[in-house]
Amino acid sequence: MTFGFDSAVACVVDALDRLHTTARSHKRVMVLEVMGRYAGWIALHGGLAGGADIILIPEIPFDYEVINEVIRQREAEGATTSMVVVAEGAKPKNGDYFTKKNVDRIGERALGGAAEQVAKAIAEATGKETRSVVLGHLQRGGNPTSLDRILGVRFGVAAVDLVRAGKFGHMVSYQNYLVGDVPMVEAISKLKQVQPDSQLVVTCREIGINFGDR
After folding, report:
1. Is 75 exposed, middle or buried (0-12, 13-18, 19+ CB in 10 A)?
2. Residues 35, 133: one domain?
3. What does the pLDDT average to over 88-101?
4. Based on the structure, what is the number of domains in the chain?
5. pTM of the prediction?
6. Is 66 among the domain residues?
7. What pairing do the DSSP bridges indicate for beta strands 130-134 and 99-101?
8. E strand or H helix at 130, and its extent?
9. What's the mean pLDDT in 184-210?
10. Whole domain around residue 162: which residue ranges?
């Protein structure tokens, strides 16, 4: 975990809180797209904290029909609104990532359009009025949370301590609520993604949140 994550999640939660109001007023399905590229951490944490009914993340490919059935079932049970959080890197089973264009200015795939496509599919299959919202750069700015302010200070102090100790080639890390350090090579050797069977995913499933896979 790094500083900025908690602030980004807080932005997602605030957006969901606001979208719940308009969703209830108009009996709509709201699909919120959040950043994260190929990792679903922001969608997972933000969706759980913000009361999402469906969370779509890159690590768990989704099935459109599963999503549609969840919304139909909720409607049958009297829930006239549904909240869907979709990570920008989420993708359907046997499908590819949603992109606006093949590459951006630094050669990476320009992800985008997931919420729009998911909302369109839901509306066509269920007949529910559905709207999509993309948070985009709103997640990158604003005032940081108290956790991120404190974490930034702790990271700064720890980084100076590494320099004093001549411990180069290492980066500050935050694990299990403790600030430490790890070799740079180890930190960037692989993308840290959500494990589909992780405790947090299991917690979400146990309270009825669907991941579009079953």
Report:
1. middle
2. yes
3. 89
4. 2
5. 0.92
6. yes
7. unpaired
8. strand 130-134
9. 95
10. 146-188
Strand 99-101 relative to strand 110-111: parallel, antiparallel, unpaired? antiparallel
Give, as one character, the DSSP assignment of residue 59.
T
Nearest-angstrom CA–CA distance, 74 and 53:
9
Task: Summarize pLDDT for 63-86 with one digit per residue, the tens.
Answer: 999 999 999 999 999 999 999 999
Q: How far apart are the C-alpha atoms of 40 and 95, rounded to whole Å?
A: 17
**Distance (Å, whole) CA 52 – CA 208:** 10
E strand or H helix that includes residue 100 = strand 99-101
Q: Is 49 exposed, middle or buried (0-12, 13-18, 19+ CB in 10 A)?
A: middle
Contact 206, 57 (CB under 8 A): no
Query: Do residues 196 and 115 both lie within one domain?
Result: yes
Question: What pLDDT does 139 receive?
Answer: 86
Residues 133/30, Cβ–Cβ less than 8 Å = yes
